[in-house]
Amino acid sequence: MRRNRVPLLGGLMLATGAVTATLAGHPGTAARGAAPPARPLATAQRGPGALGAGSQDQGGSPPAGVYAATGSGMLSPAVTGDPQLVYVPNSGETGMHGVHTSPSSDRNTVTVIDPRTFKVVGHLPAGTLPQHVTPSWDLRTLWVDASGSNQLIPVDPRTARPGAPVPVEAPYNLYFTPDGQSALVMAERLNRIDVRDPHTMALRRSVPVPCEGINHADFSADGGYFIASCEFSGQLLKFDSHTLALLGTLDLGQGTVPQDVRLGPDGRTFFIASLNEGGLITVDGATLHRTGTIPTAAGAHGVYPSRDGKLLYVSNRDAGSVTVVDPATRKAVATWPIPGGGSPDMGSVSADGTQLWLSGRDNDEVYVFSTTDGHLLARIPVGANPHGLTFFPQPGRYSLGHTGNYR
Fold it and tell me: What is the number of structural domains in the chain?
């Protein structure tokens, strides 16, 4: 961990993992429950080479389909007063296809970035192997999934202050049922899903899974079921959201290495990033049948809807690019290469939809893309092998987990 003291917004100081003052004087610190204000981000001049495709709406057309509540400016009253910050877990682990074990000593931390200035404004302690930073269902807590130290570490998004770690076995990833009644810990190395209290994280029961490497998921439009990917054995599993009864299994093939799972705006089609196939596998959720493949580029990994819900941004970790996919036509409509190469991994779309933030897993950096034309606004040095970055807050009524699957 870095030992120099770094001032966070409004006087918050983070040093060797300790917060020494509270956040004060930052814009937008009204009491919770007030109408959420729109908070504009820093803008940058548009660079050359506009692609003409891949732009998202910035207030013109309403959001589409299942993402109707996640449009630009549609912030929940629950996040009123929370400063816009980007949280980057420095895992120190390369992950699948990783080629660069970082020599950086800044690992097992969370780097905090001000998205208005692209400046690092603090660091938080994060146990061992922090994989993702996950917003809670009620948007009141950010959970750092520290799988190596068997901990979930709560962070108050109002102050960026970490709380006491909660003992939780192998939390590679974290989701919440759409009704907010349960937290689902993807205990990847233990091949099980742990059902926990969404506030205290007390264990209710463990559900063994018939696959290896369960880690990413998304829920149906009505919340009745979810589909999860098994990275190491190449399956998709469909579960009842309430009982966690296994409803079906789809074998994609061990060589597919399925990663992120995202429901499309039509509410029927699930898009699964296939690391080895270099594209999105499309699956009909109701029947759990594979319906096609959308080529993107090598190492397809993360999938993020635009703020208007009409496009999907796919990070291609091996190719060093982002592919913009139209889920309606099931075609790639633009490619955004990182100049000089990179390793875009997991992240978030900004609250206003004008930026896509992704961690650079093999490059110890964060990338910020303009969603208007795809040019790179910034590349920000962070710690060792950054992984599941989240931009918070984002629009939506509640969080389903991961780095911010909102509805």
Answer: 1
